[in-house]
């Protein structure tokens, strides 16, 4: 993990605060383990972890005004200095408009501003501490600092309604540690904190001016090209030296076996439009993607394109063929990584502790097998679906803007997939009801559904679209929670509905942003769980400027069938790439459900052992016998929501890893000064004994 941490004290020189003179237990200096100090008292800031030298930049303007940028940022030092002057006047948005993916911390006197990103892939956390406020880009260090216990209400909401921001609010799995919402910044003034939004809020009273589709797609192309170019312009890094030959193995095989990436730049090449677009852009833009500084002839090496071929579960033959056709590009060097049962979901239940839980924990080994054959800097297409595709609830947005004619093509596509003439009327009726339903009512309906345990939803593409045409819906794991846990989340939703002031949003835009935030949070978990030493994963679709450009796309354009592949095809044409293979961008009919079900079947015994005495039952969230039965039924082929089981299993795994850890993120504290110091205390003895 890599993170930054600092704090803002109420006054300079307070005991226990600072960097050089702060003391913890037994007179030790209190600072993060393995850290480098970026600036000191009275409001210190540290960078912790294996940051590269070019990923940490501190620019000082004048006096006590300075800015730190951590990550990949395309701004020059002079641009950072100008951004600091702008932020001094209160213009925070300017700190988030440079290309790349980074966290900016601006210090103007005693005022500190920490900017989160729009997607939520680079979150910011904060907690009261020692009369001031401590902040970090990871929640676990703050939980260690205050010896936080688990927030069982947050864990219940994470299972009952993971896509509903009103249920999760700004909480984290750690009690007392709060999250800054995406699109907001944390502003600290001598210990006092404020959460400020830096994005303009659209009004429902005045319709937004119509956007030109061609210009909007051009803006997406420019933002995406600039995001890729920024990463190509960064210095190249050579992983740790290969310790020596192994009989029967080449250099690439040795590196993969030892978990070491290849030098240079690479990309995923799954055959889908998102990863293919990034691979072709990275290979085609000037900058010699594969050339290391001081290495080679200067002519440039080919970009390493990695394709994963699942031998245990078929169904993606067409995508593999398209990946092979794309890899025929002379600028690409194609590597196919094969995986059998050992790379199925749930095949590996051991792994590193991540900052937060996420469904990606059950598939981390599957991703690590692919990434180990990748490069030191590796592009992934994560986030393209969330920023480019239309959430079904956007049909209600079109009705609110009186653009009914744009519903014809998406509704016709659903009718064709379902084969029923009643589909248009059903979809139009659901979209119309959503357009007329206030946000507060939507939360109240969800609270009632959780209380009454109403989880049945129609199946198929049409059923999924109809179920998504709501302000909020239960999570796939909600059906296995205890009545007490569901009641707790229901009461919370009712309280949020009573004081809600977010009704001035369009339901489609609201649901799309929530889905993006959840995906970005899970990608962050995946990066930590599947991390390969000396490797950096790059997801340009989640960069601020790319997200902004995608949000400016007209809804009438993004709701059309095949919109994502059409937009990305236009992006590639604008960058000079036109020879795409037949069928490029076609949706994949193969589902990850087959791999998940096969993984459940292969790992049936270890999963039964995991839930023999589950920590989730001690927390009062589930009953062990119910989960064990669900696992047996899913492995036998019963139509259960497999993503809900992934949520439950990943949370149970995360709790085991959290409670089995030793040590803390800080020096100056005894071994007991860490998150959840006393473990999970059973909340309900009846459920614990019945487990």
Give the arrangement of secondary structure elements.
Elements: E1 3-8, E2 35-39, E3 45-48, E4 56-60, E5 65-73, H1 77-88, E6 100-108, E7 111-115, E8 125-129, E9 132-136, H2 139-146, H3 152-160, H4 165-168, E10 178-179, E11 184-189, E12 192-197, H5 213-233, H6 251-257, E13 262-268, H7 273-284, E14 303-310, H8 317-326, E15 332-339, H9 364-371, E16 375-379, H10 384-388, H11 394-400, H12 408-418, H13 423-435, H14 439-452, H15 460-468, H16 483-498, H17 507-529, E17 536-538, H18 544-551, H19 555-558, H20 563-574, H21 592-602, H22 604-610, H23 615-618, H24 624-635, H25 642-660, H26 685-690
Parallel strand pairs: 13-14, 13-16, 14-15, 16-17
Antiparallel strand pairs: 1-3, 1-9, 2-3, 4-5, 5-6, 6-7, 7-11, 8-9, 8-10, 11-12
Helix pairs in contact: 3-16, 5-18, 5-20, 7-20, 11-13, 11-17, 12-13, 14-16, 21-24
Overview of the molecule:
The chain has 691 residues and is α+β, with helices and mostly antiparallel strands. It has 26 helices and 17 strands. The strands form three sheets. It has a six-stranded antiparallel sheet, covered by helices on one side. A six-stranded antiparallel sheet has the order 4-5-6-7-11-12. Helix 5 crosses helix 20, helix 11 packs antiparallel against helix 17 and helix 12 crosses helix 13. The radius of gyration is 25 Å and the shape is globular.
Quick tags:
six-stranded antiparallel β-sheet; 26 helices; disordered C terminus; 691 residues
Structural class estimated from helices and strands = alpha+beta
Please give the largest β-sheet: 6 strands, antiparallel
> What shape does the CA trace take?
globular
Strand fraction: 5-15%
């Amino acid at each position: 993990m890599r993170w930054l941490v600092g704090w803002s004290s109420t006054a300079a020189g307070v005991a226990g605060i600072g960097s050089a003179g702060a003391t913890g237990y037994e007179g030790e200096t209190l600072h993060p383990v393995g850290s480098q100090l970026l600036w000191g008292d009275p409001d210190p800031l540290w960078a912790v972890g294996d940051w590269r030298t070019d990923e940490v930049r501190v620019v000082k303007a004048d006096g006590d005004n300075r800015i730190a940028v951590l990550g990949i940022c395309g701004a020059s030092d002079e641009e950072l200095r100008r951004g600091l002057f702008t932020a001094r006047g209160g213009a925070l948005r300017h700190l988030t408009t440079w290309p790349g993916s980074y966290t900016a911390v601006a210090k103007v006197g005693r005022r500190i501003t920490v900017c989160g990103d729009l997607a939520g892939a680079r979150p910011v956390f904060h907690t009261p501490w020692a009369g001031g406020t401590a902040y970090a880009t990871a929640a676990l260090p703050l939980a260690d600092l205050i010896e936080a216990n688990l927030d069982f209400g947050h864990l219940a909401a994470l299972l009952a309604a993971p896509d509903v921001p009103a249920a999760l609010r700004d909480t984290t799995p750690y009690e007392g540690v709060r999250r800054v919402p995406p699109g907001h910044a944390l502003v600290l003034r001598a210990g006092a904190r404020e959460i400020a939004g830096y994005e303009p809020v659209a009004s429902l009273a005045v319709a937004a001016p119509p956007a030109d589709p061609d210009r909007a797609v051009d803006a997406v192309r420019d933002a995406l090209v600039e995001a890729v170019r920024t990463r190509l312009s960064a210095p190249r890094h050579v992983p740790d030296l290969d310790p020596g030959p192994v009989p029967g193995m080449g250099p690439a095989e040795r590196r993969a076996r030892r978990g070491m990436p290849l030098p240079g730049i690479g990309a995923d090449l799954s055959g889908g439009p998102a990863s293919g677009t990034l691979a072709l852009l990275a290979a085609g833009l000037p900058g010699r993607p594969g050339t290391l500084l001081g290495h080679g002839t200067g002519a440039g090496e080919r970009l390493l394109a990695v394709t994963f071929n699942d031998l245990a579960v078929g169904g993606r033959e067409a995508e593999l063929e398209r990946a092979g056709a794309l890899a025929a590009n002379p600028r690409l060097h194609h590597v196919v990584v094969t995986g059998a049962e050992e790379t199925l979901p749930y095949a590996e239940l051991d792994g590193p502790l991540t900052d937060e839980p996420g469904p990606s924990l059950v598939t981390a080994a599957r991703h690590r097998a692919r990434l180990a054959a990748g490069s030191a800097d590796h592009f992934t297409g994560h986030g393209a679906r969330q920023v480019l595709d239309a959430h079904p609830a956007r049909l209600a947005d079109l009705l609110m803007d009186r653009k009914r004619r744009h519903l014809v093509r998406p509704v016709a596509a659903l009718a064709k997939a379902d084969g029923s003439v009643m589909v248009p009327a059903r979809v139009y009726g659901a979209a119309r009801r959503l357009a007329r339903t206030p946000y507060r009512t939507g939360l109240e309906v969800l609270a009632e559904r959780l209380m009454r345990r109403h989880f049945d939803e129609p199946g198929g593409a049409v059923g999924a679209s109809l179920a998504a045409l709501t302000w909020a819906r239960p999570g796939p794991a909600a059906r296995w929670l205890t009545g007490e846990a569901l009641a707790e989340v229901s009461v919370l939703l009712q309280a949020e509905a009573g004081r809600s002031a977010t009704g001035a949003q369009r339901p489609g835009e609201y649901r799309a942003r929530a889905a993006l935030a959840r995906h970005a949070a899970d990608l962050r978990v995946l990066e930590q769980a599947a991390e390969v030493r000396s490797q950096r994963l790059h997801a340009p679709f989640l960069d601020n400027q790319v997200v902004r450009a995608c949000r400016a796309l007209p809804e009438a354009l993004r709701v059309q069938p095949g919109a994502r592949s059409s937009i990305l095809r236009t992006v590639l044409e604008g960058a000079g790439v036109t020879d795409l293979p037949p069928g490029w961008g076609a949706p994949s009919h193969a589902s990850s459900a087959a791999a998940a079900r096969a993984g459940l079947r292969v790992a049936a015994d270890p999963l039964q052992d995991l839930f023999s005495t589950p920590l989730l039952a001690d927390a009062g969230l589930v009953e062990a016998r119910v989960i064990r039965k669900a696992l047996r039924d899913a492995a036998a082929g019963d139509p259960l929501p497999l993503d809900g089981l992934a949520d439950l299993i990943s949370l149970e795994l995360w709790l085991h890893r959290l409670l089995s850890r030793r040590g803390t993120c800080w020096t100056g504290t005894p071994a007991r000064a860490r998150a959840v110091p006393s473990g999970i205390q059973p909340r309900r003895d009846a459920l614990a004994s019945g487990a």
